[in-house]
Design brief:
homodimer; about 260 residues; mainly alpha; two-stranded antiparallel sheet
């Protein structure tokens, strides 16, 4: 990604949104760790995984934040690139671990049969890993057309993405039928959050194809990634907690605990 | 190890893999600490040891990462050695503590008789300590032939390694017969993971004998060490957790808790 001179406002916007993200990640971490005692035993492991996701993301945002700081120096009228490259690869390193774990959160909180859990976990985590791993090589190509190396890797990465959507809507949909009504609603919502937030990443990936570049594009992408990550990790984690609570209460009311 | 100019890509690859390792270690730490409540009392100590291993390794990777950063400075077209030596000895300090502890994790999670546990622990931890301690002196010799000081210490270090393999396959093999079937499968898998991941270290140690040197070799070794450490510590710790869970469920089903 090309860096030009950033205005004070542009630099600060990214800086502040990244700091907000760090706070959101660690805030959610504390919530999930402390709220674990409020859910039934069967659902605790899902909250544990949720806490790992936000802790790892918080760590990476700390690094990204530091990289952002060192990539610029104060110049007259704004911030100019310092020559130290801004390390965006942290995002991929983060996703490589956290995106498969988001799938683990969702499957484990449903407390399905051992076979169903194991089958869904295998499919979803491998697909999530492939989706990230296949997107990464394309990031090093800054081509501006769809028919390019960037476009090729992006397309390859879309295959596991579509597979995940299929599993979430079709296979998981079937497994949902055995869940309490309120849980079904919550899982549908978290599924919508997933497709809504994950939708930002391919847009950012394709930004060069739309001719988006320079300072404004960079600010849009960095702020957009941060907000998408807050929703996809903190918001998602809180929804997982809501599902766990709902199931805990259902189990209690029906003597299933 | 000789350092030449690294390309941006080579430098970043090592940098990112090291950062990934820090994230993986601390992620596993959180998991093991929080998931301890999910296993029976007899198995908790094994998870405690597991948490220590990844915490210590995470700390060392933090140091190695900093050392990597300070060993290079940005130059035109890549990164050149800054003159500050890259401190690889952190790895040995780490292994000296963590490798014997990996053996403790495995023996304690099996919850064998007191005598058997004590006998296996003594043999395995002393052998693991010797294996690392004997390898270290050879690291200071950068000789390129097998018949050298490096080769001699490497060979000495191999003796305790082979002894550990003997204990794991023969003595532990006998102890396994009394374990539930599913636990036997899991222990066999963790034993395979051990031999598979530990196998990387002697290869790295012998790299100079194969004429591997320069930037590419260095990148291969650093990335390889990191990935081997993630598998041998995080992957291993998660497999220990799986064994503990399996045994906890078996105990419950058979009223042995």
């Amino acid at each position: 990604m090309d860096f030009s001179l950033l205005t004070m406002g542009q630099y600060s916007l990214v800086y502040n949104v990244m700091s907000l993200t760090i706070a959101a990640m660690f805030g959610t971490f504390i919530f999930v760790v402390l709220a674990k005692s409020q859910v039934g035993d069967k659902y605790k492991i899902s909250l544990v995984v949720s806490s790992i996701v936000v802790a790892i993301a918080g760590y990476h945002y700390f690094r990204i934040f530091q990289s952002w700081e060192s990539a610029f120096t104060l110049a007259s009228g704004g911030y100019k690139p310092s020559g130290v490259p801004f390390n965006d690869a942290y995002r991929y390193v983060d996703w490589l671990i956290t995106v498969p774990l988001l799938m683990v959160e969702l499957v484990t909180v449903l407390a399905l049969t051992k076979e169903k859990t194991s089958s869904l976990l295998t499919k979803l985590t491998i697909a999530a890993f492939l989706m990230i791993a296949l997107g990464y090589p394309g990031e090093s190509f800054h081509e501006s057309t769809m028919f390019s190396n960037r476009g090729l890797w992006g397309t390859l990465s879309t295959i596991p993405f579509l597979y995940i959507m299929y599993i979430l809507w079709v296979e998981l949909g079937k497994a949902l039928e055995s869940q309490p009504a309120q849980v079904q609603v919550l899982v549908r919502n978290i599924r919508l959050l997933t497709i809504f937030t994950w939708g930002f990443y391919p847009i950012a990936y394709m930004a060069p194809f739309f001719g988006l570049s320079g300072a404004e594009a960079q600010v849009f992408l960095q702020a957009g990634y941060s907000i998408a990550d807050i929703l996809a990790k903190c918001g998602y984690g809180l929804m997982i907690y809501a599902i766990a609570r709902e199931k805990t209460e259902y189990d209690k009311a029906n003597n299933l605990a």
